[in-house]
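Q: Is it fine to ask for two folds in a single conversation?
A: Yes, each is treated on its own. Send the first.
Q: Here.
A: Result:
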Amino acid sequence: MMKTFKLRIVASNKVFYDGECQCLTIPYIDGGAMSFLANHENVVIPLDNGEMKIKTDKDEVIEAFVGDGFIEFLNNEALIVCVSAELPDEIDKRRAEEAKIRAEEDLRQRQSQIEYSVSKANLSRAMERIKVKNRHEI
């Protein structure tokens, strides 16, 4: 049996996961992914919008969208605090596609640097939600 660590994922509106985990893979800010196993070194790092995979202590794999946030791995316990965490069946594809269109339109408009950054973040979040939903549609 594989070693596990405690994982707690807190989104802005709910506790998404609270239990034991064998392996966690999260989207990293450089566009790649980072994985964690039991007894990982202590770190605090940012995470990006994208797909997260959790392999539980029962060998179940949970795949979900995770929004901007950070992970703290300390003394074999991981805490993720993020804007959002959603299972593929919780993602409203139509709403995500509408958000993508709005963000693309916002980017075409003349904006301040802050507004531009917000529009880019909105577009990234919408595109990643759509990608996760599409990957898990039957």
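Q: Second one now.
A: Result:
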Amino acid sequence: MVEQQVSTYAKENIYDLDNRVILRDYAERIIVKLKEKGKDLKKLRVLDLGLGHGYSAKVLEPAFGDYTILDGDPQIIETFKKEHPDSGVRIIHTMFEDYCPETTYDVIIMGFVLEHVDDPVCILSRYRRFLKRGGVLYVALPNAEALNRRVGKAAGLLSDLKELSENDIGLGHRRYYDIASFQKECEESGLLVRDIEGIFLKPVTTRQMLKLGFTDQILRAFCETGREYPQLCLSFLAETTADTC
């Protein structure tokens, strides 16, 4: 990851509000969905791709008994360790394309990963092989067709729904997804999409949200309301499996 991308992850910026909301929400939803399946979280072997801002790791680590994170950037790993000196999370420094586990996993998590990589289908196909039979792979992605982006395009602020902003580029984003493009990549990878739900129904711009001073209760309500409207939310969470039945 280039220095600009590392600094973007490390510093506070206007979009830190969005990041805190979506990264907390998708991590909490994974825990809820696994509990609804009757899973004993402490017995699950879980693999998480990417540290990013570290928000989701803080939610997920306490929930699981066997939790490992992969990350290819030593600076991001070092930043996380400095900010969370008491964390006992297992972090492996490796490129996603190079990781070869000695075992398989009950749960694999790709939280806002595929928009960064050169070949998303290659990553999905590779990690599909690392799932145990009956295992699940959760993928969270930024949504090109989100309500706020649709409004921005209608207002002439975006030329295309998949247009990358300066902040996107600073974070190393290569693409936006819509639900159809993600489902196509899953089909090409041999993954079956079981469920897709929305993450954060964002009605206005981040600057407007900050000016209005939305409380945490309101922000959580936007997340809860958006579950049934993934095509309109800022991001979406998909549950996939390698099993065909």
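Q: Anything structural to flag on that second result?
A: Two points. Strands lie at 45-49, 66-71, 90-93, 105-111, 131-142, 192-199, 235-241. Confidence is low (pLDDT under 50) at residues 1-11.
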